[in-house]
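Q: How would the structure tokens look for this protein?
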Amino acid sequence: MVQRRSSLKPSTLKLNDAECWRYRGEGKTGLVVTNNCGLALKLRKGTHENDYLYLYTRNFLYVEVCIAPIFGPFLCYGQVTKLPPNLASNVVSSIQNRRSSLKDSNIDLKCPYALMMPDACCLPGHNNIITIEIKPKAYLRTTGNQQTPIKCCRFCSNIEKRYAAKLIGAKTEYCPRDFFSPRASKVARAISALFDEPLSYMTIHKDNKRIFDEDNKNLEEILGPQSYRTRNELINVIVKILLSKRSSRNRNVLQVIEEAQQINTLSIPDLCHIYSQFNSKGLDIDIEIGKWLAGESTLNKEFLKLLDLIVKFSISIIAQDISIMISISPDSDRNLSQIVANGKVYSYKVSIVDVDMKSAKKLPRYLVQEKELSVSESDNNLSFVGESAKNHLGSHLTSNQACFSESADDNDDSNGHLSNHLYESTGKHTRI
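A: Here is the predicted structure in token form.
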């Protein structure tokens, strides 16, 4: 029988001095601060919820069961931490002047928990560390692992659209098709384009201080005779690290991410149809995923197969929105991974971060985005229930399908089926 944690006992944060935390960055769902002990703390953004511990526990289990087996040694995650009273508000107050005026400030100060994890920028015992953070995004449309015929990739289409709408002030020549190429020259071209115009897709920190982003493209603090004499030397180091194979399946970090992006096999319209099947039965897909993660699902085998497809889609969406953290030291350290480039030995660490569970309730919004990015052939590719749904789902989409198991034995078998089905193409499945 699969053993799962149905609850999580959060550790209590002892480092309660707000002044010791430094601003690192933030996104739509969280704000990250770090300290001198090699720890990072992610504070929640959003509106007040009724059960924070449930949300954090579900997300923790989701990462361990669904994400960790895929990203393996590259994954950087942590544990749920209970915050001392007023720590969140005190931290936010102490770093407020470091935050961009364009950043959304809705930190959920009522949330008593946070995610504490290793600082991906930290290499213990090393100085002169630079950390390159890249959000590679994706080039495939979200229609499975076959690329939809389009004039340019999904990312480039979105950049053109945002620039035309004056949502961004510049365009970047960066393209994920180059970044995920097995050819070093194309990966180098992608990184060079980010150096020219990073927008929000690349930042660089040096010894925990941000020194390069869309507002500051000066590399003077990075380049030097003891580390990287030219920009091309730095790019050469980054490319060699990205293409170095490390996972248990002899994959580099780019291959691992791309495989996760392509794990989904259905189009957005077909997934929306599954979403409507759950809604028609009064079921919340996010809650049903949480029940399965806790080993408490009451769905039968047929609906668990549908849940499996939604989970795969969720994994692919996460892989399209992760960040790669590449921390590099110009000094040799046998306790770290090493490469030889530019006639020198560099030590490094590669981490994948930002792997929080994506809500299935966003599927209708993804459908709108997909239609907006479609080209002339969209009428054929984006029919609401396409042929691919019929081929993949068969009789599972019948409206009169019962959605609950009739016995505990059926429920156990169904849970086992979902585990095996979900990871049949990814190898090891972490049991918790």
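Residues 285 and 360 are 7 Å apart (CA to CA).

The chain has 14 helices and twelve strands.

Upvote if useful.
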